[in-house]
Amino acid sequence: MTTNHLPGTAVSVPPSRHHGIYILDPSKRCEPNAYLFTKTINFFLLNGYRITNDIHACSTILVNSCCVSEDKIASSMGALDLARPYAGQKQVILLGCLATLPTPRLNREQLICIGPKELDKLDALFPHMTAISDISAHQLHHELYEPGQGLDRGDYFILIAQGCNNSCSYCNIKRSKGGVASEPVTAVLYRVRQGLDLGVREFTLIADDCGSYGHDIGSDFVSLLQQIFALAPDFTVKLLYLYPEYLQRRFEEMAQLFGSGRISYVHLPVQSGSQRLLGLMNRSYAIEKVIENIRIIRSTGARTTFCTHILVNFPTETMADFFASLELVDEFDDVIMLHYSDNQETAAAMVYPKVTPQEAEERLAIAAQYVNRHKNGHGFVIKNFDCTLPYGPQALPNEG
Prior knowledge:
Layout: E1 20-24, H1 31-46, E2 50-51, E3 60-63, H2 70-83, E4 91-95, E5 112-114, H3 121-125, E6 156-159, E7 161-162, H4 172-177, E8 181-182, H5 185-197, E9 202-206, H6 221-229, E10 236-240, H7 244-249, H8 251-259, E11 263-267, H9 275-280, H10 287-299, E12 305-312, H11 319-326, E13 334-339, H12 357-374, E14 379-382
Parallel strand pairs: 1-2, 1-3, 3-4, 4-5, 6-9, 9-10, 10-11, 11-12, 12-13, 13-14
Antiparallel strand pairs: 7-8
């Protein structure tokens, strides 16, 4: 085993802390998850712990997890299956959204479960000189993150909130994280100032829903953006993710911010072009109004890349619903169309009838043809959230 230090970091800790940490990470495509897991790994590295590729020699196994779909739950459970035989001899820590998902399918026996909002538990479990709250994760470890639409491994990330105030009928993330927990305005501004001092001129603000920001602390997202932009005149931001209803509800103020040319990117997950299906999804916005708002913003000359997710084959979806969603493709610069699959224990799982497998395949094929023809490499159709095997270990910076 070897000791890992981040570049330029001097660490002096008692030898008892120099035990091995083994990583199992089947979740790399979610920015909030990758941010929190990078922060966790930084906690260990900065406090003198070692990342090892020998599961037999380690004393702690970290299993990062995702619960966005049944596929991701299955891959997370698979990683856990690799770790469980060692649970009697080593600490097995389950991180990520599965750790706090209320499901009877997860056997928590002999596991230490630490959800996305609970990273401070690491302070109590591991001797340290630097607390988890003082650890940054602005640059995501390349081995822990596969960039999504319009994003890059070199982006400078700032987490502004977790959880949201929405209640989508299919969503496991809300079931795991609950309502919004916002970072204090002063903390966000401090992190932006830090980046500016380092020469950063584009920041990626991440949250499960940026539009929910501030509801729990007497602030709001428009106010936060205004204060961020007041720090300096020469930088831009990316927004990941923004619930469309917030754009609709605060359109006049948001349009001014977009019109400033300082929002270079926004991920606006519209999910469907069918108002009826949006009702079944429990998503409270008028899709025609959202598209109208996007067109108005574009007409101002705003230099913004608009990205979105669209669900295909949601329960009861008709061909008319499907084509209404397909029409949205041309409204966005980058589109991912996702095959819907039921998440057990959610309200949407009880909506019938389901789209038949044959119809689902036909629609995915039509969607793929349309996206390939119209998006010129800036769109994808995804049937499932499959993961690369094996799950781990991952090599981290300066591992010998």
